[in-house]
Specification:
It comes from Verticillium dahliae (Verticillium wilt). One of its GO terms (molecular function) is [pyruvate dehydrogenase (acetyl-transferring)]-phosphatase activity. There is one protein chain. Helix 3 packs across helix 15, helix 11 packs across helix 12 and helix 11 crosses helix 14. The strands form five sheets. Strands 1, 2, 3, 4, 13, 14, 15, 16, 21 and 22 form a ten-stranded mixed sheet that branches. A seven-stranded antiparallel sheet has the order 18-17-23-24-12-11-25. Strands 5-10-8-9 form a four-stranded antiparallel sheet, with no helix packed on it. Helices cover 26% and strands 24% of the residues.
């Protein structure tokens, strides 16, 4: 009997992936012989036994926020310099309140002084309950004013160079020299919450030829995922640790059981859904059983955190043999495919739909499941509270009222909504789409949490990637396999407009529209909004989402400290995957040009 043996390859943060030998990578995703996923680091690698299917979702390491795993510094660059009202100085030296200068936008107010033209000028950011604007402060001394009780804070603006450093702090890029239809992938994160509630995961699994035939080449299963946490970071961290392994185990069982090891499309989709729902059952229900059985508050503190917080999940699965890309979406993160059209421009195709209470299809589904409950979706939210209608965790929308109250009284928990009658109201079951990828045409995929889509449209994101490709192709002096493949597919060119076709009459369903431009007071039709200055395309997208060529806006948004920054931008996690037929050395190599340098290890006291 054929066993779908797999060899697992995992790229780790800022680590050079080494050439993989047969002995170092082989493993099985089978209960009889657990797989071995090998993580390769710059100096060492670690072999960890994979979980058997019945324990696929059980974490083998304590949950940690991705911010701390990647040594991401949450320290504010310039620091808080004072509280109270902020005043500019007019020509006669008297102080005037700048409250009305600019509200909810980033226009600069000008401060001057006649007493000392040579006095130093410092740029500041004024933060109030209902305003945000920049200004200048002339003179020495701390920038603070204690007059009034309006609770304003004054923060010295970071410089454009510091803004770039902050944008690139977590960027990663990898060349995928597997010869299996993927050339490269880039990713970056930018926190707004402290710590960041987003997370991500990537994994490549090598699958031997069918029936062990020597004339059938091996293929790859490639996974990329972004996880948008809310009400804490623990659920998204749990997904980073376990979701890909859980889904891969379900897929392995499905392929083994299928005739000729070629399952029907419906069976593959069902396996992905089973992986999602089984993991959520472990998070939400099996954790409660263990806690109630043990009676331990220590266990409750550990196991209930991923249940009480929540996370959306967006997972892509690419099978290099069939060239089929499947995208599973639970929540409101979004996947968009970029594809070159006959006109030479790019087209944007959404491969997921935002699942929120504002989506008419999702609202109708929930009302059908809970007849007679008029407020099952209220103000675009589940029971008037939770925006996504599908999510991992969020157990207070899934537990019975009795379970919620027992846990609250004996351990930890939240009081359920007074509207809760017939739980569960929220499900982790994803909607799965299937798309045929054309690696030879240079397709690319963008996965991002909803923070990006609050700032940019699908067409803008695809056009920005297309613009970045044009710039790299025309200005690159590299002789790498990636660049030569790129130039062969796209040629070179550098045109001023975004090279994207705007779809007319396309049904966007429940997709959110970018709301931040209106909040920031910026016209979406403003000329020359965008810029190309980053080697990492994910960082390029984040920079342009925050303001692009408007450096003052970019630096202002990056100066904002948590938690106030959350009013103006969300956590951001972006992955971009480039498909193409490149070299086949078996390696996944760090692209140092587009990866943040590793921070030096600090001496322990």
């Amino acid at each position: 009997m054929h066993r779908a043996a797999t060899r697992a390859l995992r790229t780790t943060y800022r680590c050079t992936a080494r050439t993989l030998t047969r002995s170092s990578r082989r493993g099985l995703l089978l209960p009889q012989q657990p797989s071995a996923a090998v993580a390769y680091g710059a100096r060492q690698y670690h072999r960890n036994p994979a979980r058997s299917p019945q324990h696929a979702g059980h974490a083998i390491e304590p949950l940690q926020s991705s911010m701390y795993i990647r040594r991401f510094s949450a320290a504010f660059v310039s620091g808080l310099v004072g509280y109270g009202a902020w005043y500019t100085y007019n020509g006669n030296g008297t102080a005037t309140d700048s409250h009305d200068a600019v509200a909810r936008s980033f226009a600069t107010t000008t401060a001057t002084t006649t007493s000392d033209a040579a006095a130093p000028t410092r740029t500041v950011l004024v933060i109030g309950a209902d305003e945000l604007h920049t200004g200048t402060y002339v003179g020495e001394g701390p920038i603070s004013k204690t007059t009034g009780n309006d609770g304003k804070r004054v923060v010295e603006m970071i410089t454009p160079d510091q803004a770039t450093e902050k944008l690139r702090k977590t960027e990663q890029s990898y060349f995928v020299n597997r010869g299996q239809g993927v050339l490269r992938y880039d990713l970056v994160q930018l926190p707004s919450n402290d710590p960041i509630e987003d997370d991500h995961a990537e994994k490549i699994v090598e699958v031997p030829g069918r029936n062990g035939a020597s004339d059938v080449p091996n293929s790859d299963w490639m996974f990329w995922g972004v996880f948008d946490g809310h009400s804490g970071w623990t659920t998204s961290a749990k997904l980073r640790q376990t979701l890909i392994n859980t889904v891969a185990n379900e897929l392995n069982d499905t392929y083994k059981a299928a005739p000729g090891h070629s399952p029907a499309a419906e069976a593959v989709e069902a396996a992905i859904k089973a992986g999602f729902t089984k993991l959520d059952d472990e998070i939400v229900h099996q954790s409660v059983e263990k806690v109630l059985k043990s009676g331990s508050k220590t266990m409750a503190a550990e196991l209930l955190q991923p249940a009480l917080s929540g996370s959306c999940a967006l997972l892509s699965f690419y099978d290099s043999r069939s060239k089929l890309l499947r995208v599973a979406c639970t929540g409101d993160s979004r996947a968009v495919l970029g594809r070159r059209s006959d006109s030479g421009k790019w087209t944007a195709t959404a491969l997921s739909v935002d699942q929120t209470g504002s989506n008419p299809d999702e609202a109708a589904r929930m009302r059908k499941l809970h007849p007679g409950e008029d407020r099952v979706v209220h103000n675009g939210r589940v029971l008037g509270g939770l925006e996504p209608t599908r999510a991992f965790g969020d157990a207070t929308y899934k537990w019975s009222r009795d379970i919620s109250m027992r846990l609250r009284q004996a351990f930890f928990g939240r009081t359920p909504s007074p509207l809760l009658k017939t739980p569960p109201y929220v499900t982790a079951e994803p909607v799965v789409t299937t798309t045929k990828v054309n690696p030879e045409n240079g397709d690319f995929l963008v996965l991002a949490t909803d923070g990006l889509w609050e700032m940019l449209t699908n067409e803008e994101v695809v056009g920005l990637v297309g613009k970045w490709i044009e710039t790299q192709a025309s200005g690159s002096s590299s002789n790498s396999q990636f660049d030569s493949t790129w130039a062969r597919i796209f040629g070179s060119g550098n045109k001023p407009q975004l090279p994207v076709e705007h779809a007319k009459g396309q049904d966007v369903g429940g997709q959110k529209t970018p709301i931040r431009l209106q909040q920031w007071g910026i016209s979406p039709d403003a000329p020359e909004r965008f810029v190309v200055k980053d080697k990492n395309v994910a960082t390029h997208l984040v920079r342009n989402a925050l303001g692009g060529k408007n450096e003052e806006q970019v630096t202002a948004l990056l100066t904002l400290p948590a938690p106030f920054s959350r009013r103006y931008r969300d956590d951001l996690t972006v992955q971009v995957i480039f498909f193409g037929n490149g070299s086949k050395t078996g390696e996944v190599v760090v692209n140092l040009e587009a990866t943040a340098p590793e921070e030096p290890v600090k001496a322990k006291l």
